[in-house]
Task: structure prediction
Amino acid sequence: MSYYKIKNLEEYFKHYKKSIREPRKFWGKIAEENFIWYQGWDKVVDFNMGEADVKWFVNAKVNITKNCIDRHLAKRGDKTAIIFEPNNPNEGALHISYNELYDRVAKMANVLREQGVKKGDRVCIYLPMIPELAIAVLACARIGAIHSVVFAGFSASAVTSRINDCECKMVITSDGGFRGNKSIDLKGIIDEALEKCPSVEKVLVANRTNTDVNMKEGRDQWLQPLLDAAIPNNVAEIMDAEDPLFILYTSGSTGKPKGMLHTTAGYMVQTAYSFKNIFNYEENDVFWCTADIGWITGHSYILYGPLLNGATTVIFEGVPSYPDFGRFWEVIDKHKVSQFYTAPTAIRSLAKESDEWVDKYDLSSLKVIGSVGEPINEEAWHWYNDHVGKKKCPVVDTWWQTETGSIMISPVPFVTPTKPTYATLPLPGIQPVLMDEKRNEIEGNQVVGSLCIKFPWPSMARTIWGDHERYKETYFSAFPGKYFTGDGALRDEVGYYRITGRVDDVVIVSGHNLGTAPIEDAINEHPAVAESAIVGFPHDIKGNALYGFIILKETGEYRDRDNLTREINEHVSSHIGPIAKLDKIQFVSGLPKTRSGKIMRRILRKIAEGDFSNFGDTSTLLNPEIVDEIKDNKI
Ligand code: WT7
Result:
């Protein structure tokens, strides 16, 4: 019996039970039957959750790109691996076959080696959604270099801190990028970022926008001539199962971004397995995930998951609103997309436009439609189900995180009956639990608690780059022996999970995970600002938006509050990126603080939401009178 594909509900429960009772046998069998290995493992899993130490497929040897590309060549060499759909529809799509992908990745891998990149070196990839991005990622994996993709919407200072944190040796970027009717000067941002990055020796520049850029002698080279000179053959590096594959930064509730480290074999096995089941993938399907490869969703479900299954995956450079609001639906129609995977924020923004945009196109190729990134509200779920899925495509509401590497809780389409706003059931191998405030596991159904995972899973992050203590502290200390997700959830009468949102100081804005602390740090650097507190509040399109409460220094300058508001947002934009801009800024004379000096964010959150009904226990506040002032001046 094979566990790779769940065929019906009965089988789901059977596989699930097996995966809990005998996780080693379950994952061992999946790993053995569906991948090519240079050498098998001594142990399927070895772990100590208390120490946050987890190893899967101990001592096995593998290369993930051999599994993504080489092994498909005999059977699927001419099959399209990647469809590149450019920002401008008139430019025409590009189809890259598995054979061609092999050649391009091999050449890129050879270029990286020639440029001195070795196994274990970190390479920062700061590229728009063009084929070079996929090829650079795979080329790193080919030679065992650790890729650190930084979303090309991040500002120079955000890039600087990510490069310095893991000491990248090389940056791969492009002259610029297209997004809707804008073009973005990516090389300029890299030049600025690199002023403070001593570890970077070389910069390779892909040509996308044909713009004049500054090329620094001895550091910068155009990528294309190097590729043209490279040979299209490459021997893959033999990697240990636990060798690092990539670092991906995610916001924390405090301090600097966390470089989540994912390793090779476990990530490979679970992204492939989850892709196959959550999207009901069958040969000749065309899969489209609209995320950017700069996020985990793109890593796992634009690149690795689909390619491991020999699928055709769409890389879309553009935005949902350009050249018009029919763009997503036009692409589905044009490429006969079978599975479509997007975010609630995109769904909401398109649902508010006329239904004619979607009705205009033939979406009959669709089989499964997915949602990820934040809780999907009931209205958006129904619009998606009715207008995009035409009530015949199961909606998979997939819950997971950068840290989990792959989808953890989600319906399996055509297997698990869906329920609007519910991520439903854990995948086989995943053991979620709800915990109460006393750190006890909550048994039974119709309960609410903090969502934890009590047994390791193959694709979990292994550490935070350079800071294992912080990894332990952030994820394994709140509930000893368990992984704490940072999310709250409820479990309904049949055991379905519904994710209710973050219980820490992270706010999800348009599906982007934003820590409030780094935004506050950026705001506090403005010369007029004494102190600030940021919270999220509900927003129709973005899910949440940011509300800032700001105390000004008494300098007498900055009388013009509108101007100041603008300046603060420009500051945030340049330090973190435009996504972190505040929708509302309220200047206050103080912030509600406890005797130990901690800001009581719970109260600020209620005020920002406009809910003045019950602030809970405020007896520990040092300055309770400030609550009324803030409330009365709410924007
Ligand atoms: C946080 C992780 C890997 C997904 C992309 C975001 C929220 C994610 C759902 C969902 C409700 C969701 C959680 C999670 N989230 N998917 N289907 N329903 N909430 O990855 O940036 O690491 O953010 O996104 O709060 O903890 P991320």
